[in-house]
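Hi V.,

You were right to ask for the full record rather than a summary. Here it is.
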Amino acid sequence: MSSLGSSPRRKEDRRLVTGHGRFVSDLELPRMRHVAFLRSPYGHARITGVDAGAARAAGYRVFTGTDFAHVALRAQSALPSYVETDQPVIAHEKVCFAGETVAAVVARSRYHAEDGLELIEVDYEPLPPTVCAWDEPREPVHPEAPDNVLLQRTFDAGSVEDAFAAAAVVVERELVTNRHSGNPMECRAGVALWNASDRKLTFWNGTQVPHIVRNMIAELMDLPEGNVRVIAPDVGGGFGVKAVLYPEDVALCLMARAVPGVPLKWVEDRAEHLLAATHARDHRYVMKAGFATDGELLAVEADVTCNVGAYSVYPWTAGIEPLMAGGLLSGPYKLTNYRATVRGVATNTAPSGPYRGVARPSSVFAMEAVLDDGARELGLSGVDIRRRNLIRPEDIPYRMPSRLVDDSGHYDECLTKALDALGYDGFRAEQERRRGTDEPQIGIGFACYNELTGLGRAASAGPRMPFRTGHDACTVRMNPDGRVTVFSGVTSQGQGLETTMAQIVADGVGVSYDDVEVRIGDTDESLWGFGAFSSRQAVIGGGAAHRTAEAVKEKVLLLAAGLLEADPADLRIEDGQISVVGEQKARMSVAEVARVAYLESNRLPEGIEPGLEATKFYDPIRGAFAAGAQVAAIEVDRTTGELTILRYVCVEDAGRAMHPQIVDGQILGSIAQGIGGALYEHLVYDDDGNLSTGTLLDYLMPTSAEVPDMVIGHVAHPADNPLGVRGVGEGGTLGPNAVLAGAVADALGVRIDTLPITPASVWTVLQ
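Predicted structure:
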């Protein structure tokens, strides 16, 4: 019986819900020492001196930037406009953002290491900081980029000028989105151990990309890649923040080599995370859109500036947000005439990097805003103007103006189903009833989006890095007892991948779900896997697992056919039993076949080698777009600006939902994260480059009280990949900005141009 499509108990749950999770924070090793990093209090300053004498005299092991001045991270891209810059492991000439590391202390506990930091004296010569990416730079962050622009690109299709000249209505809008932090449950963490006799490094790291981390650490430390082992145990959330190789990671490994045989541990605290882990979504969109009288979208012109912070993060570069914004700004709407100039601008703020939905929560907000403006100007409803322009199944494959190819087209179906689940007509009637009364006003907001998932090597919408993130590998081994071990290149950050990979392999081989064990996150156990990002693991990692499982099944059937003197085509495997097609009774078990394969080689048919194992790679070449629509009804109190979500609905096309409970959990969690960004979360810097919202008292995050009950619906149109799946990990984040801003505008007749939507900001707009 197939386990795919059902929701068996997750394999991770036994250890996670009983407190036996294996997080980096839990790791304890003999002789372990702890690391604390000294961080710059200045947003921009030259370092004129570092005095660690007092700390060393007190018995602390201290490392400063000069110890590792020969090592730097350098994110590369082949785009012509990209400006490459170095990111030091520990700053030694100048600091470029408040929170950058300037020294590190090793001690017997984190408490003592923090004491050691207080004994280090650093002399700074302050420089003028630049905080806002669309202000004039006060001083270049890097000499290589005097204007602070690290990357600029223009996406161009059709004739924008002619289309605007023919338009019945042209709308213009400037929108600014707020700066976010990922804030996973477990902050960044690492333990590094150097074995001097073998010249081998073991690095336990809470990372989403263990193989990429191994690759770069080996290069920076001048080691054979096989001498570096990266282990990502249970990862307490990542959301993209842990898809970056950080200077602290490299520093930890370099320090471990300097103290051989001593494990060095660093676990980031929450204040460090808000200060120094990557940020995202600090964007400005200057939009212009032209419409025909019937609402047809004729042209879009956009100027997009993304604050990429102080450094170009490895490996994703400063282009990850601006290029994704420009490549997918038009979303699920048909558009011929398009021009978008995007740029990544360096500032003296924490570096910007990948974060769940990469740029698209902002770009969807911008696109949906101009659609709503066009509808108002033309006297159309928000539903009508979207339906007029959505890509439809008959348009597939649809080449977007950025040349990406959309393979979905089921956007109107998602929107219709979402409106029905909302009770759209009922809320419109209640909205009319409340007009002119003192009751809170009701508004309805919409967002339609296309989420590009499972990017193959031909579908990269981001920077042209020196490698393509298109494939993953999987090894499936049937053991002598008939049970199966899976070594997958996927990496879990809480998505239940041990479960879904087990389902895929169980179905592919024909054994019980309970007889499959999945091992992930260890670079010494599995072949190359690029890791967790871009909603890729179900499509690509799942595709590799499916192909490998089928290869093992073929081997089992070939061996069984020899033992039974039957044709392999006449045999089938179900629940670990092998039978002849058409017969009710099984002829033999998979375990019997496996025993012969390993232990009774004298029974092996001629031409069949011992063992039952296979390894396969999978690359979807392009990718799979997931269609989605979100709608919500809210009420707003005019006197306070307070917003209450009455009902929130999301409908997505996940293709084939392999584990429906996990799929719903991913969608629910991503919407909650999106609501947090729309209404609460905001990293604010003052003019001197100091972070003003450096604790969770200032950086507000939604709790269960602020997250509404949500209705999740599905349409199911299989994608063109081995499992027919589409990714769902990020789509939920794309809608809330647009949905909630549009709902406020619908309720109050105002425009929301700046996020987050706080009671104060709504009240101010009303005044």
